[in-house]
Design goal:
Four copies of one chain form a homotetramer.
Chain A (H helix, E strand, L loop, with lengths): L7 H9 L3 H6 L1 E7 L2 E6 L14 H17 L6 E12 L7 E10 L4 E12 L2 E16 L2
Antiparallel strand pairs in A: 1-2, 2-4, 3-6, 4-5, 5-6
Chain lengths: 143, 143, 143, 143
């Protein structure tokens, strides 16, 4: 997969920096390229549930954001993407020093993009798959 | 649907009060009973995306929490529920003075509960369906 | 919801009659109108699994078809719909003299329609919810 | 992943041979092992929709069956699995001489298994991803 213009990284980062929810939850960009987007999050009390696991909603937010930006990295200068729907399976309790998300575009299309996000816990260097999401996105023209 | 013990409301509220993510996102209990759970959220800059719509992840968190507590209200004193997976469709931009979520149990089971959440925007008293989620939950014994 | 032209029923039925899978599985139209579509299926050995329940795949086919036609009933003469994705929860074993499916459009859009299908078993006149599906559809121009 | 007893292949094949829907749709076992299951299907008029694409419901049936058997291969002699829910994204029109499905267990659990199915079209030896499904399964004791 290829980006559609030279400065796509700038456009992507600028948009990410306007995501209030990412800042609220502590989700940061790790790295990205055309069709993929990696994020990280250090769990704080703010996003935990009653067992001190990271709440499903925080993992879902991370998965949706990362998959959306994986698709966004392939848009032209005048296009953006909207999440149509997503589905996430929670595979194990998300307890960890760090949460990583690896998103990639599974299928680009004319109007519909489908991305996948894998969410991992990291403890003492050991990465475990904690959640997996499939995200359907619609390409729209920017206003 | 019927609660399994007299003081179930106390147990439910106590657990909700331990949901760090709910507090972070500003999700509050509106009302609940056996098999249903209603929440509300006043959108703040913290949960908006770049168009000032409420971010899909915040709606998903609200939908997951509300559906989970709808099922939790039917558990015995020693049981709780874990989200196995959920799927959410974003139906229109979530712009509003207030966001409401109406969750109910669609099917109780021995081990698996399925709940649904409808998320509405409210503007000048007009309620519009903004998202709908289906949530699959597993009944587990509390430690 | 309103049909876009007078003879929409003819167009809908003509398309349904070309669905090879519907005939293979024994899915028949019961009734329909603008934005809704009802189907029925009498379980035969052909669609059962090893416990003599109707197989999830047959219920999913019925749910997808019915939701798709609920949206199709709202298209113009030159448009049709494609299933982008669907999700189905199997709520109880599908054992019955008859299987019914009730589909309706949850949200029409410019390019994306979202429909829901409820699948019921019928035994001695008693209807029980056996499955529920959410279906995302894309509006496309006919060739 | 490891099978729980020596003769698991016999048990798996015996159960597959009782799947009426697989025979109706022409779905055959290609190969399998502990935690994975591959199937194939030659498209016939019976499973096509009006554009002569394989109908979403037939792909969904193939994906559900294959994912279910991937999990079933890991069960003990007295256990089986039930589909709790699945979600499938249709990624491109399924036109082909042959349809292949590659299913594997993503996460085994005590009570819940999650599997994934990738469905491919094959034309003149070229394999293309046509659909992808995530399937949630519940482990139950056989009667």
């Amino acid at each position: 997969m290829k980006a559609q213009f030279a400065d796509y990284k700038e456009k992507v980062l600028q948009s990410f920096n306007h995501q209030g929810l990412a800042h609220t939850l502590g989700i940061e960009v790790e790295d990205f390229g055309p069709g993929w987007f990696h994020t990280k999050m250090i769990p704080s009390q703010q996003i935990l549930q009653h067992h001190n696991y990271v709440h499903a909603g925080a993992l879902a937010s991370m998965a949706d954001l990362s998959s959306g930006f994986a698709a966004y990295s392939l848009m032209s200068e005048k296009e953006e993407v909207l999440t149509v729907e997503f589905k996430i399976n929670l595979l194990r309790p998300a307890v960890g020093e760090m949460i990583l998300c690896r998103a990639k575009v599974l299928k680009p299309g004319k109007r519909i993009y489908v991305s996948e996000s894998e969410v991992f816990t990291v403890n003492e260097g050991i990465k475990k798959l904690a959640a997996k999401a499939t995200v359907t996105l619609l390409v729209v023209d920017m206003d």
